[in-house]
């Protein structure tokens, strides 16, 4: 066996750190649950649905975006059915760790420096960890890393097997997540670099070299484009990412689609990070080539346009930063005549590796309930998910349509349908701008909010104390709404018959006995 050195501990520490941190992420309510419900529906019906049935505001309306996620949603549902939330989180952690592991491997093959590759991968993980929620996007991170490794590996050793990664990977990607155009951007940048080289070779009258260089990236891009057609929507598939990136409603409602800012965690990491990456490319003794500069420009602009692009900037740049970080370190070490870094004691290195492995074992989701995780990290399902409130809702069955916090809609689709349908949920593009306007006006208790609720036939409110405090206070003050349930995640109000209020009479209300427990109000 090769001797275990400190150089090996660098990548081990980064990858185990990614694995451990990903295991601590509970399942958040916004995206995961409606994808899980779609997987359940596809398995039960044997086909991909074409219209919405989960909302009462848009029921029966076409929703072709289902065809964008069907494969990943079936996979999520299969995992959940086999092992519940714990197995889903474990698989999610493995996918993320594999993605960053492939990037680290690509960086090491380019830079021949484990420490530089590990630091560049750590930079990539820091930009991405805010996007590590459990959802189909995780699979796209892995596929993006596969495409990146395939490009660098083929450029080092021209093996046709690496080119096969593109159509095979795209078959999965195009049926799992709307970020598939990024899988076309990577071989597209590679083709652009070879076209640049071909132009230079043509100027030197070297036509054969020009054509030879274009062949591999051309095959990769063409095969990927053809693989994109193997989806239920064909060329219409491209409407999904185009609609999301160009819709101002999406950017106003979902912060991760808006441009990053220094006031947000991703923006506070990305904005200094892109500047530091530019400085590193400028001062590196290894001159950046066309592929590296184009990758920096394209994925940097994506990150500046939308917060969702921040993680992709880190993923695309990790191997490139490995090369230039290694070059800067090597130049400084040579100029100052520094000795090689110590390898460390083999036994101590082995002990440290064993401790890291033990930490990874303790982080497994199956042990999570027994460990004292703090606050929002506790449990397999996040504390902001209205699990108990939904259970109470199904038992008490308050009347009328339901108005709720948007993120709650995802869990309601999974747990409360068909007994309750949602007002709106994270399928942002399904709902028109007028409905989102009403949602915001109601959620912020703008005058006329009760009349708007009545137009939608709403008699029950499921509200988030973190995001709908104004509406909660307005419902308390109105006199027309009665609080029937409360916990840390959600409150439930029901509307009293017109002309009555909870300050004057309860005589016409259903006979519900109120019992106060630890932070809950139960109605039996």
Spatially, the strands of the biggest sheet line up as: 1-2-4-3
How large a portion of the residues is in β-strands, by DSSP E? 5-15%
On the 0-100 scale, what is the average pLDDT? 88
Total count of helical runs of at least 4 residues: 19
Specify the overall morphology. Answer: globular
Structural class call reads mainly alpha
Q: Portion of residues in helices?
A: 55-70%
Order of helices and strands: HHHHHHHHHHHHHHHEHHHEHEEEE
Q: Would you kindly provide a written description of the structure presented here, covering whatever features stand out?
A:
The protein has 524 residues and is mainly alpha-helical. The protein folds into two domains: 6-234 and 259-357, no CATH class; 387-523, no CATH class. Helix content is 60%, strand content 5%. It contains 19 helices and six strands. The chain has a four-stranded mixed sheet. The protein has a two-stranded antiparallel sheet with strand order 5-6. β5 (514-516) and β6 (521-523) form a beta hairpin. The model is unreliable at 502-524 (pLDDT under 50).
Please tag this protein with its features:
mainly alpha; disordered C terminus; 60% helix; 19 helices; single chain; two-stranded antiparallel sheet; globular; 6 strands; 524 residues; 4-stranded mixed sheet; 2 domains
């Amino acid at each position: 066996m090769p001797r275990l050195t400190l150089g090996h501990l660098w990548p081990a520490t980064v990858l185990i750190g990614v694995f451990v941190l990903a295991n601590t992420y509970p399942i958040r309510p916004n995206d995961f649950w409606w994808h899980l419900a779609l997987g359940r529906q596809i398995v039960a019906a044997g086909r991909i649905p074409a219209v919405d049935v989960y909302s009462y505001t848009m029921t029966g309306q076409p929703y072709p975006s289902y065809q964008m996620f069907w494969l990943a949603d079936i996979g999520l549902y299969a995992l959940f059915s086999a092992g519940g939330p714990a197995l889903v989180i474990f698989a999610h952690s493995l996918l993320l760790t594999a993605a960053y592991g492939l990037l680290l491997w690509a960086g090491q093959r380019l830079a021949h420096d484990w420490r530089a590759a590990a630091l560049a991968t750590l930079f990539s993980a820091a930009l991405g960890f805010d996007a590590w929620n459990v959802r189909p996007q995780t699979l796209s991170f892995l596929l993006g890393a596969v495409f990146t490794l395939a490009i660098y590996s083929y450029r080092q050793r021209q093996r046709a097997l690496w080119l096969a990664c593109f159509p095979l990977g795209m078959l999965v990607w195009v049926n799992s997540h709307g970020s598939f155009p990024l899988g076309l951007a990577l071989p597209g940048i590679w083709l652009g670099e070879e076209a640049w080289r071909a132009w230079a070779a043509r100027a030197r009258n070297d036509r054969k070299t020009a054509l030879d260089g274009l062949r591999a990236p051309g095959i990769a891009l063409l095969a990927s484009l053809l693989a994109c057609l193997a989806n239920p929507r064909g060329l219409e598939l491209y409407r999904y990412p185009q609609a999301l990136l160009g819709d101002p409603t999406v950017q106003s409602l979902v912060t991760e689609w808006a441009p990053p800012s220094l006031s947000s965690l991703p923006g506070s990491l990305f904005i200094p990070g892109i500047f530091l990456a530019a400085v590193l490319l400028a001062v590196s003794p290894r001159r950046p080539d066309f592929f590296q500069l184009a990758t920096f420009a394209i994925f940097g602009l994506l990150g500046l346009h939308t917060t969702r692009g921040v993680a992709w900037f880190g993923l695309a740049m990790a191997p490139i930063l490995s090369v230039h970080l290694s070059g800067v370190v090597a130049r400084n070490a040579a100029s100052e005549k520094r000795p090689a870094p110590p390898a460390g004691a083999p036994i101590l290195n082995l002990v440290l590796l064993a401790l890291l492995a033990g930490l990874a074992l303790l982080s497994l989701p199956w042990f999570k309930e027994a460990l004292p995780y703090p606050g929002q990290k506790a449990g397999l399902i996040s504390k902001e998910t209205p699990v108990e409130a939904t259970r109470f809702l199904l038992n008490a069955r308050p009347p009328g349509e339901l108005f709720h916090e948007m993120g709650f809609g995802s869990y309601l689709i999974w747990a409360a349908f068909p007994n309750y349908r949602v007002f709106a949920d994270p399928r942002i593009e399904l709902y028109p701008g007028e409905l989102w306007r009403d949602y915001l006006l109601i959620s912020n208790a703008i005058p006329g909010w009760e009349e708007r609720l009545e137009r939608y036939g709403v008699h029950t409110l499921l509200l988030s104390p973190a995001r709908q405090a104004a509406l909660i206070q307005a419902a308390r003050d109105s006199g027309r709404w009665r609080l029937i349930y409360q916990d840390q995640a959600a409150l439930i109000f029901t509307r009293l018959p017109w002309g009555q209020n909870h300050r004057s009479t309860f005589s016409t209300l259903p006979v519900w006995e109120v019992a106060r427990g630890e932070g809950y109000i139960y109605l039996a």
